[in-house]
Fold this protein.
Amino acid sequence: MSASSPLQWLVANGSIIFESVGILSYALSGLIEAARKKLDLVGMAMVAALTAFGGGTLRDILLDRRPFFWVENLTWIYVILGLCVAAMLFLRSRHLDLTERAMQWPDAIGLGIFSAGGTQIALQSHLPAIVAVVMGVIAAVFGGVARDIVVNEIPKLFIDHQPYAVLAFIGSWIVVIGDGLHWPDFVSLGLSALFIIALRVGAIVFGWRLPVWKV
Amino acid sequence: MSASSPLQWLVANGSIIFESVGILSYALSGLIEAARKKLDLVGMAMVAALTAFGGGTLRDILLDRRPFFWVENLTWIYVILGLCVAAMLFLRSRHLDLTERAMQWPDAIGLGIFSAGGTQIALQSHLPAIVAVVMGVIAAVFGGVARDIVVNEIPKLFIDHQPYAVLAFIGSWIVVIGDGLHWPDFVSLGLSALFIIALRVGAIVFGWRLPVWKV
Amino acid sequence: MSASSPLQWLVANGSIIFESVGILSYALSGLIEAARKKLDLVGMAMVAALTAFGGGTLRDILLDRRPFFWVENLTWIYVILGLCVAAMLFLRSRHLDLTERAMQWPDAIGLGIFSAGGTQIALQSHLPAIVAVVMGVIAAVFGGVARDIVVNEIPKLFIDHQPYAVLAFIGSWIVVIGDGLHWPDFVSLGLSALFIIALRVGAIVFGWRLPVWKV
């Protein structure tokens, strides 16, 4: 082993680590919403799974792709079930606000990963650029939208005036550009995801708002 | 150019014009609902797109057809984005009621176009007549149903006692009959759409109601 | 005809009878919910159809299977329409509570039939065991979840602390085991469905509750 192993390991496993952070943070946001709404154990598991898998699954239905990523990699189903048991044992009311604020950061990673990844998968299906970008946005945001709908709320995404989906929309174009310029996949994916993550972190830190629309 | 050019042009482009009126009026109804609920810009764009594209997309998922019509004709995505910008600049509260009443008319056109068109597409996929008619109804009404669900309302369609889906159901059988009698497509499509539009206009003008069901 | 004809007839037609009981009880639960929410006739028909067909249709979309069971067997569409007419003529407020309690029993049959059947269909599509079981659960519960969402409630399934989906999850593994041991289809299907039905009846009769999760 050379001194550079940790870095090599990070490059080799980076996409898996990032994807895991994204899926876990989406599942956790489902769990927290379920806890707030006092759902039972089954509701908790279903909302967590819907939030984590919903976006990617809808993307694959729209693209007519099979198998779904949670069928190719069964670990995720068990991870969700394990998360629910862990939440049942350890999650308490006083954790909820804290956890929600803490979760904005991994959620930003999920946003970047899923939108860049969704855009690339759609491009590989030979869809036009604008459609690929829309698929990336759908992959990144539909889980959260479905989570809010099943717990009977207007999706936060539609109403909170924070830049979120719009950042996914902007940053996903980097994947399109990289594809046009024949960059290696991991470069365009990585740049796009990092750009979206950076924008989202900026939006949280500096409190950016969408242009207001006064009806 | 002969004196009859305007008419010839209308016949040649009639279906595109009608379809455009339908899609635009559905998108506008999404915009108006989003404005009422004080959604932000992103919510506005998403609800408008869902209302305009939802029915046709669900129809194509059920029929396992690709590409979706908004993928074949990318203009529509840009039209929705443009509509949102226009709404942001020009739409004000005092317009909302006015606009909603004005929109009943183009919406009736959308109902006729989408249900006749959806029925025909399902027949071309060799589905039985009753299923084709159901697909036509789904194509015509699902966008509005999804719009109401995401803004956290019971779908108006399910609860307002106005004849709407039932007119699509009745009128779509004309496409089935025309198909059985080998009429040219544009004849059965046109007759069915016009019949549904006429029924819907009648329902609005004369205040027809569904038979009441007293629980 | 031998003396055993009634038994032979039951064995030959058992799955159709059971399936019919399941679909009818799901459709009725949609009707009752629609009546409670004072939906109109169209809403009633749509919610009944969504509840009865929603789970199987989503299962088939996820598995990329066509035709849907309600396209293969058109009778069901007419049955739903007939049910709505019957409900309109005969259903009154004072029936609602009574009907809902009475319906728990056929609903338990639906739960057993749809989850065992959904699991087997997914196994025939060569999906891994855990995914097949998840598909069984989705087939059995999605109709009821969609019913509650469209009438603007948090799905009862997610919040009432009664064992329901979890019984489908447990009992569907019998289909997986039977498949592994090469039992005849009707044996593993029948055992799994009966086991789930028995558990559900036990849950209703003895008032079993999910382990409580105190946030």
Notes: Residues 129 and 176 of chain A are 6 Å apart (CA to CA). Chain A has a mean pLDDT of 90. Residues 15-206 of chain A form one domain. Chain A touches chain C through 33 residues (CB under 8 Å).
